[in-house]
TrEMBL record:
Transmembrane segments: 94-114, 152-170, 191-213, 219-237, 258-280, 286-305
Lineage: Bacteria, Pseudomonadati, Bacteroidota, Chitinophagia, Chitinophagales
InterPro entries: SpoIIM-like (IPR002798)
Pfam families: SpoIIM
Name this polypeptide is given: Stage II sporulation protein M
PANTHER family cross-referenced by the UniProt entry: SLR1478 PROTEIN
Keywords assigned: Membrane, Transmembrane, Transmembrane helix
Length: 320
């Protein structure tokens, strides 16, 4: 059967299952079985098609719904972070990868722009911040700016600011994700200019160890938050087999799930910045350990685990 005919024949049923899944467990199981049969057919004849990816995602959703409707009580909080959020991330890992690459590219753009133009750092970071940092460097305390203020108030303030920024990136997705990408790119450029300021003074290595104590979590979460805006824009521009408005709603739902999942990450990152980064002169081994633990968490939970979970559910769906 040609792919177009296969889609035409089943599209109405797929849309009904996607938009109005049955609350009845038996009917849900029947829907799941039908999706698995369609998925098996699509993988055999159209292995690289969008319809195959769509059916794979829908089958995973139905499997998870059946799992959550078992007789045993399931903690919703645990289920969200163990299944819902990782599967949502798995559906959009290409978007996350693209956002990460863009951020890194413009970080280097900011770094080398600052190297080429001495005024660039001040334009990006502001005179007050640069003057304060230069005074701290002269006094032998280059990262003294992290030691100002009350740790607790600093933690709360940074956390609220970063969460609000994440929700702004998400909201900007309604403009096809363009503003979300723009703001993320500007953040990358600012970080690049920031790093050059310290590299030019001979504090490059210490700068990375200090900033990435909290930055590994914070910057990763910022990139992922920007990706939620892109997800919304992508859902509208490329709805696939769904109606455009339905695809937009699904993209918004996925985006808000990811944003909610990032809140604990922002909380921990702000805590580290408020309570730990101020002791940046701690032994290098301790700084590196914190950095590596943060990196392992980000890569493990937001990259490796979602892919493995999706693959395991797909295998389970085939067996079922």
């Amino acid at each position: 059967m040609r792919e177009a005919l296969f889609i035409k024949k089943n599209k109405e049923r797929w849309e009904r299952i996607s938009q109005q899944p049955s609350p009845d467990t038996d009917e849900m199981a029947s829907e799941f079985t039908q999706l698995v049969e369609d998925l098996g057919y699509a993988k055999s004849y159209y292995p690289y098609s969008k319809v195959t990816r769509f059916l794979n995602a829908e089958a995973s959703k139905r499997y998870l719904s059946i799992y959550k409707n078992r007789r045993e009580e399931t903690n919703r909080f645990v289920t969200f972070f163990k299944y819902d959020l990782p599967l949502t991330i798995a559906r959009h890992q290409l978007v996350l990868l693209i956002c990460f690459l863009l951020f890194m590219i413009f970080l280097f753009v900011g770094f080398f722009s600052a190297k080429a133009d001495e005024s660039f750092v001040r334009n990006m970071l502001g005179d007050f911040y640069v003057n304060t940092t230069e005074q701290n460097i002269e006094s032998g305390n280059p990262f003294g700016i992290y030691q100002t203020g009350n740790s607790f108030l600093m933690w709360i303030g940074i956390m609220i600011n970063n969460v609000s920024v994440a929700f702004r990136y998400f909201g900007e997705g309604i403009f096809l994700g363009v503003l979300s990408v723009k703001d993320m790119v500007e953040e990358g450029i600012r970080l690049g200019a920031f790093e050059y300021m310290f590299f030019s003074k001979g504090y490059g290595g210490l700068s990375i160890l200090t900033v990435m104590l909290h930055g590994t979590l914070e910057l990763s979460a910022i990139i992922i938050a920007a990706a939620t805006g892109v997800i919304i824009g992508k859902s509208w521009l490329f709805p696939g087999t769904l109606k455009r408005i339905t695809a937009l709603k699904n993209g918004a739902k996925d985006g808000i799930k990811i944003i909610i999942g990032l809140v604990p990450v922002f909380m921990i990152a702000a805590f580290v910045e408020g309570f730990v980064t101020r002791y940046y002169r701690m032994p290098a081994a301790l700084s590196i350990s914190i950095l590596i633990l943060s990196l392992v968490f980000i890569v493990g939970y937001f990259v490796i685990y979602p892919v493995r979970l999706q693959k395991s559910l797909t295998r389970a769906a085939k067996i079922k």
